[in-house]
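Re-run requested by the PI after the first attempt was lost when the workstation crashed. Everything re-entered from the original request form. Ligand of interest: pyridoxal-5'-phosphate.
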Amino acid sequence: MRHETMQNSDPSTPSTPRLDAAKADMMAKTARCQAMTEDREALLFSGMRANLLMPHPIYIASGDGAHITDIDGNEYIDTVMGFGACVLGHRHPDVARAIQRVSGAGWHFGIHSHEQMPLAEMLHEAIPCAERILFCNTGSEATAYAMRAARTFAGKEKVGIFDGYWHGMHDYCMVTPARDGTNTRPKGQDISAGVPKAIHDLTVPLAYRNRVSLDIIREKKDELAVVLIEPVQHSNPQPDVVDFLREVQDVCRECGVLFLLDEMVTGFRIAYGGGQERFGLTPDLATLGKACGGGLPIGVVAGREDIMRTFVGDDGTTPPVFAGGTFTGNPMSMAAGAASVAYMRDHREIYGHMEEQGNRLTAAFNSHCTQHNMPLHMSNVGSMFHIYFQGNPVYSSFDIDEQPLAAAKQAFCLHALNLGVLISGGDKYYLSAAHTAEHVDRMIDIFTETLSLVREDGLL
Ligand SMILES: Cc1ncc(COP(=O)(O)O)c(C=O)c1O
């Protein structure tokens, strides 16, 4: 019974000669992963399983630079990169040294430690809007705190969110804008069970890269506390977003609505100063995490002094906005983050490198698809990339066709894995500073070989 699950009994999984051979290869070289799946699935819930389109999950034993190695000893070029957190690659020596140092001094006190200031000072300098900083442990906490501060400061309760976003796991992010028939105005739709109905009343669904959103913000300005937007959506990294971002920023200013950039992925990735630096934006608040923790858990709220003072209450806010938790600002995350940010600050050349490699990968992939008349394409902004299994261009998430080439996508991920590139099927892919030109050449070779295999099997 358990075995059937591992053999991938999903009827939507195609069976074709080359894919069956790749599956057999993967099964043969991942016996330990297979055994662990049997033990694990009886005990442990794993949200990631559904994301990995392969016969069974692989479990990672180690990572180094651009590579990860599974518990069977197979090495892959990684494109998950800790869900975007590992901008410097895995196990960067400066970060490893910082972790080692803190592990010799004690790593959890609850109350403040001296490790917090160096990172706070660097973030203050790096992030244009960061007049004040607040630490927490995850990006979800950061967006929850930022919304709470925005509501307090603005004296209004609603939050505007765009389709295609991800801002974290808390209830205030669980109503997503969904296409409402032919109407360009999206409706709110639950993306989880257990979300209170009241969240719908507090969410203003907005259409990404659609000027109708500017009208909606104007119409709702008396109720809207804040509008959240990613400078580049990690689910849909499109290069030409700056005009829309500026329009949203301007209309928020005009309407007295706070403008929050969620830089969880883009911070320290698409530029040292994130989307604010790259696109010349001046948000009221920004949320960060991922890269500025060096691969350890972190969340950051940064923003205008007057808004951030609501956290302290010295502006007369009674009670102040609550923020805090057991592991907030813990020494390990602070030290790893400081080592990571210091390296990025002192090696700005990594941004040109990631940009060049991301552009090269995308150009090669797209030119192969065009040349061979394959209906799919890649888009990237620097080191963030996405493969769309559809030919028609994507403007917003509403243009992403649900399952046009689902079988081809499954086959692509499996072949690529078998050939040595981990493409998770989760649609959000990253290069890092550790991905060299040679890694990217290898990825181009593997992707083109993979596309040929998928086509030969008639799935493309
Ligand atoms: C843009 C954005 N905001 C918020 C979050 C939530 O961060 P976390 O997973 O650390 O809670 C994520 C996570 O991927 C994200 O990409």
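Saved to the shared folder this time. The first strand starts at residue 60 and ends at 64.
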